[in-house]
Amino acid sequence: MKTVFLTDVAAVIRSKNAGPYELTLDIMFKEEKDYLYIKKINFFNAELISQLYDVTTDKIINIIYFDPALAVKITMIRPIVSGSIGDTDVYGAQQHAPLLAIKIPMTETLT
User: Which of 12, 18, 46, 102: disulfide with 28, CB 3.0–4.6 Å?
Assistant: First the structure.
């Protein structure tokens, strides 16, 4: 089966703090058809995120598909509290990197 990189269909892939204890991942799509396909197959789910970030599924707080913005918002508990000893990314702005290598199963719907 052919695949397409998430980076080919997403306009924005970013991460940021959602307070000192949580991290938010945002994925915004270029095309509505690609977003709707991803949503239909529930591509972004707790199991995928837990594998990508090496956390248990109970650390995934929310995965929200937001139609008006063609976006997926994922909120999870940070493994290290922002600003504490051992934290290497106080703002959480570099935590989206695991998303960049994701491949999505390609159908006629995807770009």
Answer: 12
